[in-house]
């Protein structure tokens, strides 16, 4: 906000001694500036009281009434005394009880009118309210801030200190936002925002202030991310010269979709420049991201560089290897695998070939980032299903080369604006359409009473030569509610699935065992794969057309969508049956949504609303500074505007080095410094 050094300590406020300053310190408040930034977590609105006669028992309400009788202390027992205050609004009456607080009792004057906020108890004939929040409308504004508290600090203390801080420091506040930003986006000034976020004159003023502070946070965040982005533009040794893709394209069994072509074109453009590519390819499950990666691997090999592709599971790594081998080996490019479960001798051999540059495209798991893995000429690094990897792991892989180009592939279809924030240092290509001929998966929600019928439905497909999945939440039956994998392993006699060839797959199995089963499934020797969520990411068997998900309520929307993406990969109409006995309306609404739409972007947006970005990405992995006022899920429109404004500003002053941007630069630094210190 303002020059930190000049901002007076919190101790300069009346009533703040050593002890209280310590309490404030716990909240991260050390001076008047940080106090002013300590925003309420909610506001109690006394501006719209209901008539007492309309207040229903059990409700939290605000009523307004005049004190007509006071009844002094009654000692109930040791340590418990109460006071009664009788209030009327002309028509209804309310009995207010105050416990153990003679000051609160004395503060209420006879014949004076107050607002009371609390829960109505008693009955319709005698309404009561215990220890309400009281507001004196003659002396206070009708909207009261509610601060997050810590032991030793009351809301009242913070209010008092805040008032004084505003009075004493308000005039020294210099607006962080440039004048043109305020004007272009219709934002109120900082002084006004601080006054009205803490002590709103009315609801409108509160809304204006909130809007301004949300914008400000997003603006600072965008500036910071923008700067990180430009800092990471590293020079690279692997500037692609030969960009002729035609042999690669001729070898493909299909032609590319427009989105795929565009993504490849974006990558080529990046890789022919002198700085390293940093690109995120985002596209719904099944849109065909792998071929984009393969195309760039092809060019990299043609230009003498190696590529490394890291997948989150061995299963996926093996599958990628197979796909890439099919696309690249006929063109004379060698591909290899590096995963944890490889036997020592084989591993040493592979490592040698990688170090010698004999393997041009290496696919693997996190085994790729271990010590001892050395590349001859690593020019391209690809990570698949990005949300499983932290930024950290991505950069470890990059460090195996000298500023290699980076490509990240993600099926999590987060809204564009958010993606630009999350992966601030990455450029973004989005693949929106699916390859031709795909039919959207039909999805149903049923309860377990219909399980047998669902199994019969699956059996019919198996008998026609198709394959299917059953997904269960976990391996062991620890929770009687859960239909576990074990239960499937034990009891299919007498069900429609009896006699079908079934493979079981779960996370605790050894890599080789998983691989064997997956291979059998891919070759069609196994008809039905019963598994935990290990099939979630990326597994591709187009002949699988039907899926059952047990205890569907256990999974998030996006996760279910990913799971469902395992079917619907061929031209046959596919089906997904969600089984859940949960009848919570929110859960049902979530699952129904899945039945209504196949659009991963829409589902992601909903998921974001329901669960917030923290859960959505795994809290640590989203890696953004904590925001105080703004919310990624609900304030997306603001985020977009703030991002635009930040871009405009950065174009003109990329390092924020101009004198009039000093304050901004300091604020951005502060925001990001706070993040790294947590
Ligand atoms: P994802 O984006 O989920 O990683 P994949 O790369 O696994 O998708 O591709 C899914 C399936 O679609 C694969 O079987 C792949 O061969 C096929 N595919 C990809 N692109 C096309 C295309 N342009 N036309 C037809 N099929 C395609
Ligand atoms: Mg994939």
From TrEMBL:
<dbReference type="GO" id="GO:0005524">
    <property type="term" value="F:ATP binding"/>
</dbReference>
<keyword id="KW-0413">Isomerase</keyword>
<keyword id="KW-0238">DNA-binding</keyword>
<dbReference type="GO" id="GO:0043138">
    <property type="term" value="F:3'-5' DNA helicase activity"/>
</dbReference>
<keyword id="KW-0067">ATP-binding</keyword>
<dbReference type="InterPro" id="IPR033454">
    <property type="entry name" value="RecG_wedge"/>
</dbReference>
<dbReference type="InterPro" id="IPR027417">
    <property type="entry name" value="P-loop_NTPase"/>
</dbReference>
<dbReference type="InterPro" id="IPR014001">
    <property type="entry name" value="Helicase_ATP-bd"/>
</dbReference>
<feature type="domain" description="Helicase ATP-binding">
    <location>
        <begin position="270"/>
        <end position="431"/>
    </location>
</feature>
<dbReference type="InterPro" id="IPR047112">
    <property type="entry name" value="RecG/Mfd"/>
</dbReference>
<keyword id="KW-0233">DNA recombination</keyword>
<keyword id="KW-0234">DNA repair</keyword>
<dbReference type="InterPro" id="IPR004609">
    <property type="entry name" value="ATP-dep_DNA_helicase_RecG"/>
</dbReference>
<dbReference type="InterPro" id="IPR012340">
    <property type="entry name" value="NA-bd_OB-fold"/>
</dbReference>
<dbReference type="GO" id="GO:0016787">
    <property type="term" value="F:hydrolase activity"/>
</dbReference>
<dbReference type="Pfam" id="PF17191">
    <property type="entry name" value="RecG_wedge"/>
</dbReference>
<keyword id="KW-0378">Hydrolase</keyword>
<dbReference type="Pfam" id="PF00271">
    <property type="entry name" value="Helicase_C"/>
</dbReference>
<dbReference type="GO" id="GO:0003677">
    <property type="term" value="F:DNA binding"/>
</dbReference>
<dbReference type="InterPro" id="IPR001650">
    <property type="entry name" value="Helicase_C-like"/>
</dbReference>
<dbReference type="GO" id="GO:0006281">
    <property type="term" value="P:DNA repair"/>
</dbReference>
<protein>
    <recommendedName>
        <fullName>ATP-dependent DNA helicase RecG</fullName>
        <ecNumber>5.6.2.4</ecNumber>
    </recommendedName>
</protein>
<keyword id="KW-0347">Helicase</keyword>
<dbReference type="Pfam" id="PF00270">
    <property type="entry name" value="DEAD"/>
</dbReference>
<comment type="function">
    <text>Plays a critical role in recombination and DNA repair. Helps process Holliday junction intermediates to mature products by catalyzing branch migration. Has replication fork regression activity, unwinds stalled or blocked replication forks to make a HJ that can be resolved. Has a DNA unwinding activity characteristic of a DNA helicase with 3'-5' polarity.</text>
</comment>
<keyword id="KW-0227">DNA damage</keyword>
<dbReference type="InterPro" id="IPR011545">
    <property type="entry name" value="DEAD/DEAH_box_helicase_dom"/>
</dbReference>
<dbReference type="GO" id="GO:0006310">
    <property type="term" value="P:DNA recombination"/>
</dbReference>
<feature type="domain" description="Helicase C-terminal">
    <location>
        <begin position="457"/>
        <end position="609"/>
    </location>
</feature>
<dbReference type="InterPro" id="IPR045562">
    <property type="entry name" value="RecG_dom3_C"/>
</dbReference>
<keyword id="KW-0547">Nucleotide-binding</keyword>
<dbReference type="Pfam" id="PF19833">
    <property type="entry name" value="RecG_dom3_C"/>
</dbReference>
<comment type="similarity">
    <text>Belongs to the helicase family. RecG subfamily.</text>
</comment>
